[in-house]
Write a sequence for this structure.
């Protein structure tokens, strides 16, 4: 495990609290990673008892990210990506997928977990033709995100914004919608927005009840209609909002062991700003 300290942007040390489970590190555990602490593994195992499909779900969402970025880079010819809620680096990260298609692609990662930022700076390195950058910010602090991302991204040109599994951490619905609205107002026509988040089911609600007792940050599920509202005013990319394993499955290189199970997937979608 790495030293649980990482430099903040102002040069001070930000302490990683190893006694409180954190979603990025638990997600890393479910994906088979090693960048997690005992408390993360403990809660991760408890969640697996309640929701045995969570490991599959984590891998399925990762595959969705890969296919979305492949589509945006290859077919939509997007060269700028703003990945909000990055999580710990694993496999087929946004810049790797985008720059495999177009090496000149520029990617900005955003997270507010100091451990994530430490690993991102060490592992998420750009191709020589492109650029990557890392922002320490809360997803709701859109002014800071746009301002600092402007060091790397040209906001007069289309940008793809990905928020995968992050908006559920903004518990207030109106605040979550306003956050996305501010981000979309900052990008021009021809930009894209990709989303996936949990929706209500008996098993998901039980999982989140347990999560919110022991994990951080807190999380909520939404209805499919509430999730779709994040894409209001955008042109939905086919096949629309579907279980994530069903979103353009032909584009992905990474296969899920045991095959896909759409009934266990969260919903996901991509929209284009007209």
């Amino acid at each position: 495990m790495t030293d649980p300290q990482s430099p903040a942007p102002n040069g001070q040390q930000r302490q990683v609290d190893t006694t409180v489970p954190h979603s990025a590190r638990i997600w890393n555990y479910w994906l088979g990673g090693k960048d997690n602490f005992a408390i993360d593994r403990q809660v991760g195992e408890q969640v697996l008892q309640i929701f045995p499909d969570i490991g599959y779900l984590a891998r399925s969402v990762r595959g969705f990210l890969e296919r979305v970025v492949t589509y945006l880079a290859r077919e939509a010819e997007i060269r700028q990506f703003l990945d909000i809620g990055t999580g710990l680096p694993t496999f087929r990260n946004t810049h790797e997928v985008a720059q495999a298609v177009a090496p000149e692609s520029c990617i900005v990662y955003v997270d507010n977990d100091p451990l994530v930022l430490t690993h991102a700076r060490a592992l998420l390195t750009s191709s020589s033709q492109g650029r990557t950058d890392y922002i320490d910010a809360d997803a709701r602090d859109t002014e800071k995100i746009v301002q600092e991302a402007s060091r790397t991204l040209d906001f007069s040109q289309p940008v793809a914004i990905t928020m995968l599994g992050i908006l559920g951490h903004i518990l207030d619905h109106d605040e979550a919608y306003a956050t996305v609205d501010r981000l979309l107002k900052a990008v021009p026509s021809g930009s894209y927005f990709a989303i996936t988040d949990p929706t209500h089911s008996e098993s998901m609600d039980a999982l989140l009840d347990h999560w919110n007792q022991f994990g951080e940050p807190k999380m909520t599920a939404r209805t499919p209609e509430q999730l779709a509202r994040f894409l209001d005013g955008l042109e939905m990319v086919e096949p629309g909002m579907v279980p994530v394993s069903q979103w353009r499955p032909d584009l992905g290189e990474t296969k899920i062991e045991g095959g896909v199970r759409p009934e266990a997937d969260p919903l996901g979608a991509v929209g284009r700003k007209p």
User: Anything to note?
Assistant: The chain has nine helices and ten strands. The chain has one domain: 17-272. Residues 1-13 have pLDDT under 50 and may be disordered.
